[in-house]
UniProtKB/TrEMBL annotation:
Gene3D superfamilies, per database record: 2.30.30.100, Bira Bifunctional Protein, Domain 2 (3.30.930.10), Winged helix-like DNA-binding domain superfamily/Winged helix DNA-binding domain (1.10.10.10)
EC category name: ligase
Gene that specifies this protein: birA
Organism: Anaerobacterium chartisolvens
Pfam families: BPL_C, BPL_LplA_LipB, HTH_11
Species classification: Bacteria, Bacillati, Bacillota, Clostridia, Eubacteriales
Stated name of the protein: Bifunctional ligase/repressor BirA
Matches recorded under InterPro entries: aa-tRNA-synth_II/BPL/LPL (IPR045864), ArsR-like_HTH (IPR011991), Bifunct_BirA (IPR030855), Biotin_CoA_COase_ligase (IPR004408), BPL_C (IPR003142), BPL_LPL_catalytic (IPR004143), HTH_11 (IPR013196), Transcriptional_repressor_C (IPR008988)
GO biological process: protein lipoylation; regulation of DNA-templated transcription
Amino acid sequence: MKYKVLNKLKANMGLYVSGEALSEQLGVSRTAVWKYINELKSQGYIIESSSKKGYSLSEGPEVISAYEIGHGLETQVVGKDIKYFNELDSTNTYAKLIAAEGCADGTAVIAEAQTAGKGRLGRGWSSAHKKGIWMSIVLRPLIAPEEIQIMTLAASIAVAKAIEQECHVRPGIKWPNDVLLESKKVCGILTEMNCEIERINFLVLGIGINVNHDMEDFPEALREIAGSLKECCGGEVAEPKKEFSRKNIIRCILAELDVIYRRLNTENEEAYADEAKQIVDEWKKYSVTIGRRVKAAMKGQELVGVATDITRDGRLIIACEDGSIREVMSGEVSVRGLLGYS
């Protein structure tokens, strides 16, 4: 009912709607309307109250909630169930917990801040309050465990497309799943899996995006390599930096991933092969790794060469300096560009 009140106010943005009208239209008491108005105010909505005129919703700071993200989101699987928190230790940790308890395929977990955010290879992830997007998505794909990398590629494509649509700038993807702007990392994706020998029980896609961070928000040790959408494409140096809508970016990611996931999640081997090829081909269009000289640490061995391609299942192909051709998986390697981003 609270959000029915909100919908009425949104439909009359900037105008007053009387408490009596809201009471009659929604079939609740005026006291209940007053209670719902106060709850909405506590969530951050700017609502003016007048004893004579009623209530008026004004434009204000962006409010993020399960309702705001899910209302009107036309996805079929991804984001149909959204769990929102002001703070979690880690969205991935919580997502794995509810996945093990049987949550729905496509459930999204979103937090305004993380106290113990995680990156790849056990690294920490700085998760400033209300500055970025800290989100994990539970998926139950029909693919075999060895095909897991294709889901990571799919997630990076969904993020890149969302940034391109909402920020009007084309990002790059550093293999396998770091999204870059101006050679700085603005997004990292952590894929964790629970599986048996022949099937995946569930996987969790953890997506962290630096959206409206100022450089001062990053630890000093990260300022050379980390960036945000605001810093990288928010305007000229002499102008105030533009902030971007986290809500719109989240909704766009969920919509893009939903389309890719539903096409990919099939038991038809031929259809799956065709879709996997499309994902790989699309990933290559965003790649800043293919054709570049790279260094990979793999099982205690250092590989140096040129990244020439990726396989259908997402392995990076490196033409090594010793003349060998090696295929590496993200779980086994840490790739560094010898020039530029590292």
